Amino acid sequence: MRRMLLIFSVLMLLLSLLFTFIPSQAQEATPTPVIAPTTVSTPIPRPSPVNTVTQDGVTLELLFTSIAQGQVGIVRLSGAGIVGGRANFIDKLTEFFQMEGDGFYGLLSVNMDQTPGVYPLEVYADYDAQTRITLTAEVEVVQGAFIRQDVTIVDDRAYLIDPQIERNEFARLESLYNNFTLTRYWQGGAFQLPVPSVMTSPFGVFRVLNNTVTTRHTGWDLRAAFGTPVMSMASGVVVFAGLMDIRGNYVFIDHGYGVFSGYAHLSQIHVTRGQEVVEGQIIGVVGDTGRSNGAHFHWEMTVNGEWVDTAQFLQTWLP
Ligand SMILES: [Zn+2]
Fold it and tell me: Which of 10, 50, 132, 139 has its CA 20 to 30 A from that of 170?
């Protein structure tokens, strides 16, 4: 009997835990605050290298211990006479950018579905078109902390849960972010929060739409009233400003070297394709267009072809 009671209470505890993590009404209209980001007023210090590889006078520094799924790790390459660098990491080439007097940097991005484990990293240091040396290291990819949410999309927009519509939209976005510029438009330091507000639905959530289709959340949702101005999180060039099925009125900005940010569900767009924007510039206002449940702001980023956690860019030192 006592044993039955124990089993019962453990079950109840597990159930209550489960319901804590699976909100029944995790709609974007009535979100639960998850994190309240603050504007970073003091400069974020540059992290110290955790791992250093040296070969033939070239030094490769890893400024991280591991990279979680959907996150970015920064690497630095330095040495006399180097004119360029790139990395081969998880079957992907990442171009490095030069910081005057401070070597070359690369942003290694990890897919949110990447299997955790240790992956080889190859970094190529170029001296000229004919001469380069290769440095190798190992990078550990660790599990990300992702929750599950049930989301209800109302009847007149329910057709937008069609996986084919989502695949088409991802393909469209892919053709945009695969075409990045080798110019570093961002200023360094950390990026800016586009809408000073509370983040609600986090990045990477496993979302079950109308109890049928499971999808991943490519960004963060921020609580924001209809008409709230939306700012560019960093300087860049607008590569898309228009209507998408799921994202509604959408702005996609190229910050250079494979770093892009996206701003979704806007009611109005204040920029046009090809326009240069500066950090903090108003690019549109909050709305409820696309696959949305009431006015809110969806904010996302891709780095070297992967959807990554935008929140990391508010808190991370960037060269
Ligand atoms: Zn969202």
Answer: 139
